[in-house]
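Assemble and predict.
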Amino acid sequence: MKILRFLLIILFYFPLSIQNLIADEAKMLKGLEIFNETAACAGCHTMKAAGAEGNVGPNLDTVDLTLESVVDMVTHGLGVMPAYGEDEILTPEEIEIVSTYVVNSAGK
Amino acid sequence: MRKKEKKLNLKRRNFLASTASIAGLAATASVVPISISNANHTEGKKGLPNFISWKDRDALIVHSDKGIETHRSAIGESLITPNRNVYIRNNMPTMTDAQIGDRNNWKVSIEGVKNPKTFTLAQLKKLGHTTIATILQCSGNGRGFFEHKVRGSQWETGAAACVFWTGVPMKAVVDACGGINASSVYMTSAGVDHKPTGLDPKKAMVERSVPKQVFKDAMLAWEMNGVPLPNAHGGPLRMVTPGYFGINNVKHLGKVAFTEKESSVKYMKKSYRISPIGKKGSQYPSCWEMPVKSWITRPTDETGTVRAGKVQIVGVAMGGTKKVRSVKVSIDGGKSWKRAKFIGPDLGKFAWRQFVYEADLKSGTYNLASLASNGSKKQPELRMENRRGYAHNGWKDHSVNITVV
């Protein structure tokens, strides 16, 4: 009975976790694309995981980041950094994706 | 995980290989990709970016490679802050020696004068020579004390330094150009540090306007504390606007113009405006004159255990654009105040003064605070709440808690 329950759990959850992994991977790739291309974050920031060597804004591998702080910064900008949200350069969804990518990639 | 990295790295190669498409996409983001040639910011051996590897790591708090703060206890026990301890706040990349070239051939143009001219650094050195001490302080020094979520480096006290500058008085330069155009209202200084980035100058150029009368105190500096002005601090030539926040002391100076209007670049029109929380715009005051301010540098929680008995409470005080006149110290969180003594030389109204108050402290905990006055204004108890966390001079947030044993 215990084995049956275990198998049922595996059968139920495993596809979900695979789906989640695929979704995470897709989100990260989309985040990379936004970082390097759509928003051109790489032009101004260094982040080794993205192959970015920009030198205008902070090196993202050296700063403490939270998803909230990155979303806030990308949305509102600061100094020379564009306000990607306020100026509607990126959609809120794109901002969430690129911010998630940055938080999970910086320093790696 | 390895699989993901491989895929992402593949994408990276695509990115690096497709600069043309990046340029097109970047244009939609109003940012043109830079030539990525100035990677002088990579982490050095001491945990500092390479471009300031000569600084004292132990004296510094690294917020990012563009924002590096001096520890509260390291701003200079002898009044002047040593270069190796001076904070870093760079809006744009520090220029390299290769980009600067022969320092004596560095050029600055002077406009909005009777006879506009361009001078090399070597020519400036023939126009005049002086040394002044001023306080260099980031507009956001103290931002870390604000309770609303403020973007930017969370400076507490260490985005400030007292520095000797050597250079030519701006007045001598103006005289050499036949005087200022009568219609001018502002002195507008521009750096050239945007050029290597390829960014839109209107958004990236550090160009700052200050009231034109500032030129009477201003100087074009090529030395900092007795050595050629380090690139990281704006070498080979920097505008120094005594009494005004750091942003107005434009680095890598390429142009000074006396203008009828304020500069229209983002760093003047939109950034560095002291606006209420939730509001922004060029109608709000710019970060110009620094307010009266002081803080204790020793003892603090950084300086270790304090032994009971006589304790020297030391700090620095500034008057902004006026001479600082007095400082009071409290050991009980502001309930009572005692006058502190100024010590060390008086280097003029634009330098800070060191102060000391000798207290006899028994075992216990104490909240130490200082309160400076320039005769007409004194520090408020509380910070002036504002959107970007600028110009904080409230004494309460700058107080320190110590334990005496």
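Chain B has two domains: 50-269, 293-404.
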